[in-house]
Amino acid sequence: MDLQWPAGQCGVIRERKADMANVFSRSMRIVLRPLGHCFGLVALAAALVWPAAALAADAPRRPNIVFLVADDMGFADMGAFGSEIRTPNLDSLAKDGLRFTNFYTHASCSPTRSMLLSGVDTHLNGLGNMDEWTAPNQRGVPGYEGYLNQRVTTLPQLLKDVGYHTYMVGKWHLGKAPDLIPAARGFERDFTLLDGGGSYWDMNNVTAASPKLVFTEDGRYLTGLPPDYYATKTYTDKLIGYIDAHRGDGKPFFAYVAHQAPHDPYHLPKDWRNRHVGEYDVGWDAIRQARLKRQIEMGITPPGTQLAERMWFIPDPTLLAPAPRALLGKKMELYAGMVENMDHHIGRLIDHLKKIGEYENTIFVVFGDNGAEGTDLFKMIAGQPGTRDFLWAAINWSQTHPNAWGDPGSFVGYGPMWAQVSMTPFSQYKGWLAEGGIRNALIVSGPGVKPRGGINNGLMHVADLMPTFLQIAGATYPKTLKGQPLPSMMGKPWNDVLAGKAASPRTDKDYLAWQLFGNRALRQGNWKLRWQYKPLGKEDWELFDLAADPAERYDVAAKHPDKMKELVALWDDYVRRNNVILPSRSPFETLDDQLPARVPDDPGFPPLVTKGQFVPPKDMMAEPKP
After folding, report:
1. Is the peptide bond before 317 cis (omega within 30 degrees of 0)?
2. CB within 8 A of 428, min separation 6: which ones?
3. Counting beta carbons within 10 angstroms of the beta carbon of residue 490, is it exposed (0 to 12), middle (13 to 18) or buried (19 or more)?
4. Which of 106, 165, 173, 461 is catalytic?
5. How many CA atoms lie within 13 A of 305 on its CB side?
6. How far, CA to CA in Å, does 196 sit from each of 175, 211, 299, 514, 609?
7. Residue 578, Cβ neighbours under 10 Å: how many?
8. What is the C-alpha separation between 217 and 192, in angstroms, rounded?
């Protein structure tokens, strides 16, 4: 299959059917005038047959499109990317399609989702900052609304306009007002969590100010949830129902499956909680090393790749007593269960599409929305004892015993040590602009994608999805919206890459740039420029050669001043073009005072903690003299 529906050539099937009477009328007028009555009847019959035959010849079947987005899933969490977590269904998509090792999202969920749906930079589409962290100097500034603004159009709207059914299930996080919900932004059917996260079992939210999660279904705000609701299962059930409701009408569909999993809290059915008992007691260092080894064997990561430093505030697991190490391991067991449960329900969707004959005509796109979550969100939200939110958390999220982890009312996250495992081999995690915050595993599978089972190292970005799938669907990006000019798309189409005709949609001169919470980064070719708050950064520009150092261990700014100057100039260009306003406040502004002083990760230092018992030679041993 050619991965592009020729825009303007065949038009839209739905619209051409609607215009068929006009085609018939024109055909008859052209044919009948020069012919006699007898020949006119023959010509009339031919005219009636011709448009349908021409339409059938013109119109290859357009593919269905399914985006499978996992919330906070790390680069190394799928089996196809080196994980010990069992993900057979996602791995099967990788086997049938392409894996990408240089795919970028943003450092947090709503900014990534805004670019996915609009193809436009966050500072223009409304997510210049997350709604939860809008700084005082950003309030009221266009591009910093904290929701997907009305100055951009959306992929589902444009696909719907060219005859696609458009469905969404899962997490939205792009606005709650009636004109901002999925039904108002192009989705024909939806079952959606509007918030950024919360319980998988009920409508319980984490904060006292907003105690109840908000859901919509087909554009209506829900007063309750279906019986036997469990987020990952229910999202899948709903989507299968939407697909079946329109089977047989000849229209393709676009499905945005924005799973809540594996975002914390780690809620999951009991039979999914104990599938890795004791497996993670060996600690995070051993699991990270094992994942890197598999990545190198698979060709995901080049030989000689080093792991990023274990973050200095994370303990060496071999120095922990068995009980706390097992307790921390149990958190990772739950996380693994979350990923495996999600994979199971993705398998249900895949199996259903095979059963109804749609699998072979469906393009799947799989990725995580940002780096793995290393911050203790519950602690951040609940705050200090004596506060309103702490009291709310103590009452409504009180199931703290390890035997209750996974139940309603429990809140478990796995912490920075396991987040680094999820992001093997990269540095840092969600919220930060090191590779561990923004680089994600990507799988694309389906008709026309080749070579099957291949690995691609081209530089890709989540904003590329908009131009790519507009081309595949035969849609075009409009110049205006409601009489106002639309901002340009920032992405590059992947069509030649997916067809095996190109290695990357970008040249070495193209660049990508990010800003969130005051942290900032830019990548051009293999060079990466980065500025981050202390202590995870230097609060100054750093330079990394990602080809030689994907783990960002070595700042080479002093060795390459000309390259630094060149990339800083590109950064300044990005700021001017995209209305970038650095925030006057940041969630990281006091972090340097909260964490211990940063020190290098030198294995075996200090020897004091690893030095074993001295054992003298046996022939020199003696009992004490009387």
Report:
1. no
2. 308, 311, 371, 374, 420, 434, 435, 436, 437, 536
3. buried
4. 173
5. 25
6. 10, 13, 35, 21, 42
7. 19
8. 6
d(CA 39, CA 32): 8
Cα–Cα distance, 376 to 556 (Å, whole number): 32
The per-residue pLDDT for 5 is: 59
d(CA 471, CA 477): 9
Please give the pLDDT value at position 57: 39
Euclidean distance between CA atoms 524 and 509, whole angstroms: 7
Tokens coding 389: 């939110």
Q: How big is the chain, counted in residues? A: 626
pLDDT the model gives residue 51: 41
DSSP, collapsed to helix, strand or coil, labels residue 241 as helix
Return the DSSP state at 212.
B
Q: What is the mean pLDDT of each run of 10 residues along the chain (626 residues)?
A: 54 40 36 38 39 44 97 98 98 98 98 98 98 97 98 98 98 98 98 97 94 98 97 98 96 98 98 97 98 98 97 95 97 98 98 98 98 93 92 93 97 98 98 98 97 97 98 97 95 97 96 98 98 98 98 98 98 97 97 94 86 94 95
Structure tokens at 266: 């780690």
Do residues 259 and 69 lie in contact, with contact meaning Cβ atoms separated by under 8 Å? yes
Backbone phi, psi, residue 543, to 5°: -130, 135
Supply the Cα-derived Rg of the chain in whole angstroms. 27
- Displacement of CA 335 from its chain's centroid (Å): 17
DSSP for 364-418 reads EEEEESSS---S-HHHHHH-STTSHHHHHHHHHS---SGGGTTSTT-----HHHH
State how beta strands 215-217 and 189-193 pair: antiparallel
Residues 584-618, buried b or exposed e (16+ Cβ, 10 A)? eebbbeeeeeeeeeeeeeeeeeeeeeeeeeeeeee
Tokens of 222: 């829900």
Best CA proximity match to 168, nearest among 158, 182, 154, 178? 182
Residue 448 makes CB contacts below 8 A (sequence gap 6+) with: 1, 2, 3, 63, 363, 498, 499
Whether 10 is catalytic is: no
For 66-87, give one letter per residue: b (16+ CB within 10 A) or e.
bbbbbbbbbbbbbbbbbbbbbb
Q: Quote the CA–CA distance of 259 and 338 in Å, as a whole number.
A: 11
579 Ramachandran zone, left/alpha/beta (phi>0; psi -120 to 50): left
Q: Which residues pair with 456 in a beta bridge?
A: 100
Q: Which amino acid does the sequence have at 453?
A: G
Q: Which of 106, 109, 267, 276 is catalytic?
A: 109
How much is the pLDDT for 416? 98
Q: Record the tokens describing residue 203, joined without a space.
A: 């409508």
What confidence score (pLDDT) does residue 604 get? 83
Taking Cα atoms as reference points, which of 473, 505, 364, 493 lies closest to residue 2? 473
173 catalytic? Reply is: yes
The conformational region for residue 236 under phi > 0 = left, psi -120 to 50 = alpha, else beta, is: alpha
Helices (H) and strands (E) in the chain, counts: 18, 17
In this prediction, residue 53 carries a pLDDT of 36
CA distance 459 to 98: 14
What's residue 3's pLDDT? Answer: 67
Query: Given phi > 0 = left and psi -120 to 50 = alpha, else beta, which region is 250?
Result: left
